[in-house]
Amino acid sequence: MGAGKSSVGRCLERRSGLARIDTDEIVSAKFGLSIPEIFSKHGEDRFREAETEAIRRLSPERPSIIVTGGGIVLRRENVDLLKQLGTVVWLDAAENKLFERASRRDERPLLQTKNRRQTFSELLQKRQPLYAKAADVRVDTSSLTQDKVADAILSEIGKARPPGPSPPDGPAVRPYH
To answer: What string of H, E and C letters represents the secondary structure of the chain?
Structure first.
């Protein structure tokens, strides 16, 4: 939460020409509800199931930028599926910066608690080791603009590819946090 996944995903889409696929948008469309409404009416477990279903339907044959929610790493199956699809990018930042960004909108279902700051910190502490294990590339977004984050991702993806011409469809980039 607050790392800039959605905005960086849109920036990468513009710059790379690859399709951007947002798992939250897929799940929201499936239910015909916003993410907070899904959490409220169906619960987090059902949301996570739908999130996994969305990833299962994606094909490695279609290079794309896949933007996921921060909780995607809570299911090992999701991480395995993402790794089969391509490079996994962890957008990270200093905890205070992440909380500041995540708090700008009051619609985050997991932060609807008495002590939002403590809840955020607990979520981050639980997820950080999972992000570290899942990520092929880590980019600290603390002081970078969307364009600079996109530059960093594209540079890292370029380093990860073997020498020679790029595949015809370009690199597959999947930012998440």
So the answer is: CCCCHHHHHHHHHHHHCCEEEEHHHHHHHHHCCCHHHHHHHHHHHHHHHHHHHHHHCCCCCCCEEEECCHHHHHCHHHHHHHHHHCEEEEEECCHHHHHHHHCCCCCCHHHCCCCHHHHHHHHHHHHHHHHHHHCCEEEECCCCCHHHHHHHHHHHHHHHCCCCCCCCCCCCEEEEC
